[in-house]
Records
---
Amino acid sequence: MYLKLLIICCLLLLPLPSLAADGGYGYPIPGSYEATILGTPASVMPVFTGEMRIRQLVLDVLPQRRKPPVFFYDKGLRCTFAYQKQKAPLVFLIAGAGANDRSGKLITMMKALHQAGFHVITLPSPSHANFIISASQSGVPGDLTEDSADLYRVMETAWKQVAGEIEVSSFYLGGYSLGAAEAAFVAKLDEERRVFNFRKVLMINPPVSLYASVTRIEEMLQQIPGGPKKQGIFFNKMLSKFSEYYSAGNFVAINDDFLYSIYQEKLFSHEETAGLIGLTFRINLAGMIFASDVITNSGYVVPKNRVLRPADPLDDYFLVSTHLSFFDYVNEYFYPHFQKKRQGLTREAFLESQTLRSIEGYLKSSAKFGVMANENDFILSKAELAYLEQIFGERAKIYPRGGHLGNLEYKENVAYMVAFFTEREAQP
Amino acid sequence: MRHRACRTTLALMLAFSLTGCSATRMNTAAEVRPWHSINEFRDQRFADVEDPWEGFNRNMYRFNFYLDRYLLIPVVNGYEYVTPTFVQERVSGIYNNLSEIRNLTNSIFQLKGIESATTLGRFVTNSTVGLAGMFDPAAKFGLKRHDQDFGKTLGYWGTASGPYLVLPVFGPSSVRDAGGLAFDTGLTYGVYSAVDPFAGTGHSTAIDSGVAALQTVDLRHQQGFRYYDSGYPFEYYMVRFLYHQSREIETGKAPEAESP
């Protein structure tokens, strides 16, 4: 009897040593891929109380832009604005690749910061269709320098629109994933333009090199049977698995309990989970490629000069765009576009300009930056993680797990983020 | 009242789809073959759903977008602005409780004994102790809600979903589910007329219209979905896929694995 009890106790205590080893960090999902997909379980998210004063902004950033009829629903760049009655700092937050201004992660960050007394404006990622259609000057997303200039214009437009309503003491900036890298470039641009004089800039799970990070995501799709060209077959197979699991179990609806049970029962293998992350990336990328192609009339996936109407079927473009890799986009569309504009630009030099290394001197010299990263984030190599620690030193907070963005909404991470912005400003 | 609203909607919708068709293509320059086209790829489509009336459906999807934008969402926003959250929750509770009649009849049609008993238990408890559904004490007794409708019943007995169909006002559906919706609405209407709760007041028509209007507002209030809200250029396909798959899965029909 006692023996049995002892065994049970031992089993229950098993996870504890590992917890102690990483300083008591309590984010519960150890796997990198699993954390990325599942995010933060609701039970360990922070609780927000009180109502937010919140409003949707629809900005006319490029008044000259003529929007194709297929994007009839796009009435301008959408941002979300949460504000205080009293004077407070204003934080701009930039979404990650493919996300809009209302992504779950941004909204959690917004709620936390608003509760801590900040004004907040969330911005869609320059890789999101809404941004490409309504705010991207060139219509070709992916260049950190140009996208940051577009973001800066958006911030100025947004600020102009709300300046009369709120009192602002100073400006801060934050972003996650691709948005984090963009935040660094926006901050650098701000040093010349001086419209905001950002005092603090927080980068959450940034890539060091855009190209290297995306390469790693693309590799995840290489692992599926037949490679990325057979993603449709792979997806349908995963779907059958998912449905059969649902039918066999006693589930009430497709909800969090169901999804969490998929994780616990390890329904998908490690490779399959990786494949699903890669496919999600491709689905986002497809939206970006299509929107950019239509806006620039480049004839990449849509015939040049074709005017798509609101009710035209788009499924062929959908299939084609999801089957194009990031490398296709870079080699056939993105790099040639910039090569035309800048004579003598080599591919290597161009890709190197899409890295934090290219502005290393600035990042090292400025005390306004903070970084949050995860040891098992698959978009970073060991060397790149070490690089972040080397450049930012004390200002880089490295968590033992969380995958890519999985722990962003975990209460400890949210508390760290809020503390970063509430601490006294560094003197320039 | 409801009928008139339906007729206006239908007229609008017709006018809308006609203008959609008559719009001329303003091609000035000749089209050029794109760099990548469908012919290079040999793969199954994913997110694929039988949709022979895509043109009609897309027009209807767009019609709902405008209906939301210029009518329903402003009304819902006004409703949310003037009524306290507490009241909104009670209103939703009452309508959700009434829809247990639909859940009950359909779980009986599917001969699901335990589920029917659970739903009946919920309805009785919440109608009495829960003050006509304003509160949900049944959930505290462990009686979980099981959403059922006649579309699911048909699916349960083997009826295929049929082509995808976007309905005006109601949104994503299928031929089977649209039939199911008509049946459920008829049944609820029949029960309601038989009971006629406001007959004694002398203003039953006016009150009934009010009840129906509030129900529409509450339905949209409870539903987070907004047309074209994602901004994703292929949203139509994602919504179509998610609707179809979740219905298939919840009616207990696993999709067959196709051979490549």
Note: Chain A has a mean pLDDT of 90.
---
Amino acid sequence: MRLGHDRDQQLFAASVRALLGRECMPEHARAGFSPKRWEALAGIGVPGLLVPGQYGGLGLGAGELAAVAEEAGRACAPEPVIEAAVAAALLTHAADGKDTGRAADWLRALADGGATAAVALCPAAPVAHAVHADFVLVARDDALYGMPAAAARIVPVGGVDPGRALGRIDTVVRAPGAALLLATGQGAALAEAARLGAIAAAADLLGSARAMLDLTVQYAGRREQFGRSIGTYQAVKHKLADVLTAIEFARPTVLRAAHSYDHALPSAARDAAMAKVFASDAADLAARACLQVHGAIGYTEECDLSLWLRRVWALSSAWGDAAHHRAAVADDLLGPDPAPACPPR
Amino acid sequence: MDRLLYLTLCQIMLARVTDLAFTVAEEDFRCEIREWLAAHVPREPLPSMDTAEGFRAHQEWERELYDAGWAVVGWPARYGGRDASLFEWLIFEEEYWRSGAPGRVGQNGIFLFAPTLFEYGTEEQKNRILPPMARGEQIWVQGWSEPGAGSDLAALRSRAVRDERRGGWVLSGQKTWSSRGAFGHRLFGLFRTDPAAGRHRGLTYLMADLAADGVSVRPIRQLDGEPGFAEVFLDDVFVPDADVLGEPGQGWNVAMSTTGSERGLSLRSPGRFLAAADRLVALYGQVRAGTTPGRRTPDTYRDAVADAWMRAEAYRLYVFQTVTRLQEGGVVVGAESSLNKVFWSELDADLHTTAQRLLGPHAETGGPWLDGYLFALAGPIYAGTNEIQRNVIAERLLGMEREPKGGRR
């Protein structure tokens, strides 16, 4: 029995933290995706984290990804860390151990930082990081398609978090010839990839929530009203204490979900859902409380808090929101939700 | 039965724990306690421990646990324990609460006082006090709160005055909210020995016999109608030097080690909430199937049931993480225990509220769920109110500035 990041994961996370601490200050994060920063992250192996060694990646798992994603959230890094990992998982299944073919080529490109990926698992939803992606993976039924960005029709879509660089991809519908069928019979792999995305997003939300909390504790210590800092008031303290409690109890659920994913345990689906429930709820609570404690200054774009608020508003719903995953846990635990007593007319 | 087959069966029944693997020895330990409990837990619930009859019945159960070596698994063998590791203790607790075994009438001694004794007690004190505590013969009662000192514990005024001639201390004052005080035997608590010293200084950790001259106990009926706690009046009660724990004047520091245990791991292990959450899931199924009378629309509470279960799981994982850290780095739990306390007490209150909702119009007729509900409502109050815990979290874990103290002293 052991629950906690291991030493290698801690070291890896520390190096990501150090890198982002230098390269991803709030003013950098504001500017959006940076190819230069992505290259630096590739230099320490981040995009190739889940790419098997035979394609030049690190061949690590969700445990390492969670440690890294938490750092990406903490720094509010607008780079597609989650997407790279999910793409690696999908392409690894599609490549099926072969050294040649499009899936293998993209795995190598991911690992050396030469390409960024966007992943469209839900047909209708806008796709994060599509605008600057070099290739996109699209799931339809149980098949996985891929296409170079140049061949895809990617339409930028506005969003609450500019750092997400959302786009709509409708090539598969409109011009099926441009999409390359990578593999069929990928139902299990797609479900697994969605779980990986949920775990990584959960970890990112923990880092984001903690960053907001730290900013807010500092602010509450500086801001004076009625002759003393607002951080001395219990009304403020208790709000922030609740945020810390929510974050600290979410973290071990994320660690467990990563562990279950890496060992393909029977509870992996439920554990991933649980992690996203706790992390989304913790981050939503953090966003509300931190905005409230900042007051009007927190309601401005210029305040750095806005970077994380926007990230959390988007990411707490992405990869399934808390309600979606809570319902999944309830179904698993209590049996399927029965039909409503009165069917809608 | 073939041993390997038996172990495998145990593993299958424990689908929830196999995702974070215990060692074979730990699983052995789990099977052993599970078997013993299955054979020994009383089929009918014991009467409330806060009645004279129930108190005795619970003491007898403690003795039965002790004779089988289960009363204090984490203690050293020479005091009646079996030197279990923290993980084994957590396993014991999971199995204990899962089996529906009686509440622990000796818990305030075993889980709150004993850890302090291990840290500060002399050999003589440990040899004298721990074995009868483990056997359930001496039930200990906490004497901290006073009418004027609740959340602000350091405002306590009960005094201990030095008696050089007799070699001890003379106690006077009033303690209150002392759980098991109505039928318990001995009290541990804080007394002011140096009124001139600062609030937190000049306190001494002392023990007193509730049958001694000058002690009178007034039981207080709680919301469930039973005298679960009591007021203790001390009128020139003599306590020998042998019953001072730690150094005179160091009582605050000595006591804080107990509050760490109380809020942290030992008072409320995850096992209790995991068991309650599993029962809640079962209750939902029974109400839905109509085998237990309840509300006609239990599905309204699907999310609440799932949440309660997930939070119990999250608490378990959090404790595993804490124990992992303790074992690897020897980190003191300290202020983090306030996170635990807020989390488990609110989880417990919400869990039992959900059970009441599922029972709907039948909830008010009483039974174990109503008892559990009333008990859970005390959680955010005892062992340091959750408001105090949130102050600790904000000030000691987040480093926020203390509130200026107004109008005192």
Note: The beta strands of chain A are 117-120, 135-140, 143-148, 154-156, 167-169, 180-183, 224-225, 228-229.
